[in-house]
Amino acid sequence: MRAFQVFRGVIFVAIVVYTAAVGTHHGWNLLPVFFADIMAMTWPGQFNFDFMGFLLLSGLWVSWRHQFSAGGLGLGVVAVFV
Question: Which of 5, 12, 15, 29 pairs with 22 at a CA distance of 20 to 30 A?
């Protein structure tokens, strides 16, 4: 279990550093780039489309799991965007 916790910490730090580097060099305006790649029908766009579908399914599942209550719908939105 300790190895998993260390691995999780290393991955988290790596993602934060990578995100900071990309944001610094390319700006923090993700959505136009995200959807432009999808519209260009390239491999990065295919990945973005697949990932967006996964996030939407995740949000739908969380909402369904909470029986589409107000709290469940809120958590579903959080699952998609955070």
Answer: 5
> What is the number of other CB atoms lying within 10 angstroms of the CB of residue 37?
17
* Cα–Cα dist 33/37, whole Å: 6
Mean pLDDT of the 2-23 span: 96
Residues in contact with 65: Cβ distance below 8 Å, sequence separation at least 6, in sequence order: 72
Are residues 62 and 76 in contact, defined by beta-carbon separation less than 8 angstroms? Answer: yes
Greatest alpha-carbon span in the chain: 43
Long-range (24+ apart) CB contacts under 8 A made by 50-59 are 55/79, 55/80, 55/81, 56/80
